[in-house]
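WARN retry 2 of 3 for item q-0093 after timeout on previous attempt; input resubmitted unchanged.
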Amino acid sequence: MDFCVAQGVQAGELAADPERLIRFLRRFGSQIESDGALSAAAAVFAGNTIAGLRPDAEWTAYEGAPSTVGNREKRFEMDRLLEGLRSADDAAVRGLVATLLDWAQEEPEEPPPMRPLPVSPAAGQPGYVRPDLPAATYYSRNGEPIPYGSQWGAGGPDPDAYSVDSHPERFAGLHDVARALIDHLTAVYDVDVQDDPAHVRELLMERRDVRQAVKVTPRRSGAASLTVVLTGYPGVVVHAGLLHDFPFPVCGCDACDETVEAAAGRLEMLVLTVAAGGYSERYPVGRKRWSEFALTSFDGSGSESGQGEPAPAAAARLHDAEIRLRDVPGGWRPWPLRGS
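OK item q-0093 returned
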């Protein structure tokens, strides 16, 4: 904003006129680039202006990846956009402006992102304690210890490692974590717990190596149930709500390099967040009739979301989910506490 004023322009005028902002950034691009802090501020300012063009636009940032602004149909990488403006010709600038204005006028085909809000733990509510995970050293075929979680450097994994799953037994502790979570839910919340292999049918993904299937259903309308399935891999798959399965680990191959500690942390985050009311589902979304979910961590540590074609399911199941999700547009409710 200070830089804009120094050039005789009010920042608010630029924020209200994306075409004028683009031409301003192009004109003063060299000066902006020479100052790292100013360049970063310009990227944020321009990104916020673009995000304000549509109700379904937002910033997206992932560790190790550039930040972008947009919706599911179109995204703009702000650092690259500002860099490109400095060398763009008039035709390219006109094309960018036209793209932004056309995008701003498009009718949103889907609602804005879901942002479920979990409830804070009640006073005196028992906390979850992770059980001790077995400690072991695993070795490669050459007899060298495998440092799972830190095998690969900046160059990334060996391409051949994607086809290798050396030690799936390192995930055996996930079964202990899953059972500890079920015990915690039973102790803290007013729930119905059913340990029955038949509940594996709750999963949308097919699993044949099932060791145990436990369905935990809160005794409150509008709260999402959880079905926890222990597999012989060993691993855990959790079906949350109506249309989403979450596997732990996501992938046990050597390239993905996942550890049991990381998988346990994600499993705990999912289960405790669903119970706290930090979980939302939506179906169908947009012309493609996608399903989507959103999680806001129970402890405030972060959030995640996903969307895509729903997993293969009977038409009747999808129809039932569509009807039931209409009753929880703001997200699944928190589970009731025991004795409340």
